[in-house]
Amino acid sequence: MFINILKYVFLGVIQGFIEPIPISSSGHVFILKNIINLSVLSDLNFEIIVNAGSLLAIIIIYNKEIGKVIKSFFLFFKDKKFTIDFKYCCLIIIGVIPVGIVGLLFKSDIERVLSNINIVGISFIITALLLFLVRNKNGIREKKDINFLDALFIGLSQVISVIPGISRSGITLVAGSFRGLSRINAFDYSFMMYIPISIASTFIGIKDICSISNLHELIIPYGIGFIVSFIVTFFTMEWFKRIVKKTNFIVFSIYCLVLGLLVLIFM
């Protein structure tokens, strides 16, 4: 029982640490599946649980921003007042539409076709190169400067992250940097887009979780995984946000390059 719990703790730590940073959580899980024979790695319901833990941590971190955009959305329909926060809300919606459509209609097909270890290795190298290109880039455009084309460009770039090994946070940070956003605003916009996408994924998965025949046996390990993922995501987000403000992405670029090469050579 104790060893079994440790497996769920381990996966909760992996999810919580890797989800916020630009090194692809899905790619790491895929690699682990090829190295370690753990049934929990193939448990899609547990994946939903730990993702929900990360989601809750990110919601808490951005609770004030979330409150402002939701309030502005409803106030617009009451007072017809077009504020910066209402515009930001609309741009978040625009940004999530492309990956929402692709995720709902084609995600399983894309993962089935592209989920092989060589593609994962190449995808890590692509992530490394993209991070390297923007390693020292820090634009001057702020939240109020984000426009429709920015949202569409970043949203379309996010679609690529359905490929294991392409980091969602990485590709959106790169896309935001290419559009001249400051790194911290690209970071914030990236995770504000993450929230509705992850909420939708979690609700879609709840039905499957509730239908598990032995759910009563999994409540404790699932709960532990959720809590661990939540705690680790929270502190990793705070740590990575400081990195985004003060330094560049070269360490993450090197890591993804080395990992991608190791995958291609040895796996």
Mean pLDDT: 89
Largest sheet: none
This entry's quaternary arrangement is single chain
Helix and strand composition category: mainly alpha
Helix-strand layout with pairing:
Blueprint: H1 2-18, H2 25-35, H3 44-61, H4 63-79, H5 84-114, H6 117-133, H7 148-159, H8 168-178, H9 183-210, H10 215-246, H11 250-266
Helix pairs in contact: 1-3, 1-10, 2-6, 3-9, 3-10, 4-5, 5-7, 5-9, 6-11, 7-8, 8-9, 9-10
Describe the protein in words.
The chain is mainly α. It has helices at 2-18, 25-35, 44-61, 63-79, 84-114, 117-133, 148-159, 168-178, 183-210, 215-246, 250-266. The radius of gyration is 19 Å and the shape is globular.
Q: Brief description of this entry?
A:
With 267 residues, the chain is mainly α. It has eleven helices and no strands.
Label this structure with key terms.
single chain; 267 residues; mainly alpha; 11 helices; 79% helix; globular
